[in-house]
């Protein structure tokens, strides 16, 4: 469960980026946060991992009140949130596989289980066979998958994917979106920050829209309405 309660954030010499923002995200929810460039989408993600602190308001993540979090608990918080960064932040001189190993090591994963877990994660994101390539040798879509792989390898309950389809063609964007839906259908709460109109027009998941520091729209879509569930329902109907 994630709660933003009357959260405001501004930067020195800047306008108010988030102005009295209120929203909740339930476990297992699929949420799309939209708003034009500079609307504060990444800022929400950074607040979530306590990389930034709000000027006002309260943020609660998985029962942890971030206003009261002790420094030794910040790694605990960050293990709960896989963050696929807008600028990827994969380590350029490590291979795709090694990047995932690093993520698992940071998460304190049992070293004996790491090779199998790397394999499983690459398979999950559709990068089997690319383990030994360096990030610079990947296509844009593959690089995005590598970034997502690193974020989800240690199975955090929450994934924040920041502009996961930026600079990708429509078809590749939809493939990445499907991957995020698959991750969500396995139980992970998925939050996507995007201004990709293709994704928004799909009308899948809950939708939070930011404008001038405010949430101007919150549309909650229950899990039942997700494409996966609809597909399952259709199959059930067909089998009757
Ligand atoms: N460290 C900082 N210092 C000053 N201003 C900042 C800082 N970080 C972000 N901002 C400002 O906060 C605003 C919101 O930034 P943010 O990165 O959250 O936007 P965004 O919605 O993610 O945009 P984009 O779609 O371009 O990624 C921007 O106007 C940005 O210039
Ligand atoms: Mg951003």
Question: Which short descriptors sum up this protein?
Answer:
240 residues, Rossmann fold, 6-stranded mixed β-sheet, 8 helices, 10 strands, globular, binds adenosine-5'-triphosphate, binds magnesium ion
Task: Quickly describe the structure.
This protein is of the alpha/beta class and 240 residues long.
What is this structure's SSE topology?
Layout: E1 2-10, E2 16-25, E3 30-34, H1 41-48, E4 56-61, E5 64-65, H2 74-80, E6 81-84, H3 96-106, H4 114-124, H5 140-152, E7 158-162, H6 170-185, E8 189-194, H7 197-201, E9 206-211, E10 214-219, H8 227-239
Helix pairs in contact: 3-4, 3-5
The structure holds adenosine-5'-triphosphate and magnesium ion.
Residues 41-42, 86, 162-163 line the site of magnesium ion.
GO cellular component, one term: plasma membrane
Domain ABC transporter: 2-238
Pfam family, one: ABC_tran
> Number of DSSP strands?
10
Q: What structural category do the secondary elements indicate?
A: alpha/beta
Q: What's the CATH topology label?
A: Rossmann fold
Which superfamily, in CATH terms, is the homologous superfamily? Answer: P-loop containing nucleotide triphosphate hydrolases
The first-to-last residue Cα distance is: 36 Å
Report the order of strands and helices: EEEHEEHEHHHEHEHEEH
> How many distinct domains?
1
> Can you tell me the overall shape?
globular
Please give the share of residues in helix.
25-40%
The number of helical segments is 8
Described by strand count, sense and barrel closure, the largest sheet is: 6 strands, mixed
CATH second-level architecture: 3-Layer(aba) Sandwich
Q: Bound small molecules, which ones?
A: adenosine-5'-triphosphate, magnesium ion
Average pLDDT score: 92
Q: Provide the β-strand percentage band.
A: 15-25%
State the low-pLDDT regions, or none.
Answer: none
Cα-based radius of gyration, to the nearest Å: 18 Å
Side by side, the strands of the main sheet go 6-7-8-3-9-10
CATH class categorisation: Alpha Beta
């Amino acid at each position: 469960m994630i709660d933003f309660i009357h959260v405001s954030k501004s930067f020195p010499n800047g306008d108010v980026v988030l102005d009295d923002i209120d929203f909740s995200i339930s476990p297992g929810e699929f949420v799309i946060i939209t708003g034009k460039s500079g609307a504060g989408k990444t800022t929400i993600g950074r607040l979530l991992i306590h990389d930034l602190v709000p000027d006002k308001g309260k943020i609660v993540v998985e029962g942890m009140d971030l206003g009261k979090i002790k420094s030794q608990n910040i790694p605990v918080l960050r293990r709960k949130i896989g963050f696929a960064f807008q600028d990827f932040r994969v380590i350029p001189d490590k291979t795709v596989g090694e990047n995932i190993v690093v993520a698992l090591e940071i998460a304190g994963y049992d070293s004996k289980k790491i090779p199998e877990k790397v394999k499983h994660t690459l398979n999950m994101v559709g990068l089997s066979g690319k383990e030994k390539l360096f990030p610079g040798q990947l296509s844009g879509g593959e690089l995005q998958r590598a970034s997502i792989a690193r974020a989800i390898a240690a199975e955090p309950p929450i994934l924040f994917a920041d502009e996961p389809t930026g600079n990708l063609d429509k078809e590749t964007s939809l493939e990445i979106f499907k991957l995020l839906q698959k991750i969500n259908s396995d139980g992970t709460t998925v939050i996507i920050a995007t201004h990709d109109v293709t994704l928004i027009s799909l009308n899948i998941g809950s939708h939070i829209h930011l404008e001038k520091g405010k949430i101007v729209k919150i549309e909650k879509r229950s899990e039942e309405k997700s494409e996966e569930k609809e597909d399952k329902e259709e199959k059930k109907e067909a089998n009757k």
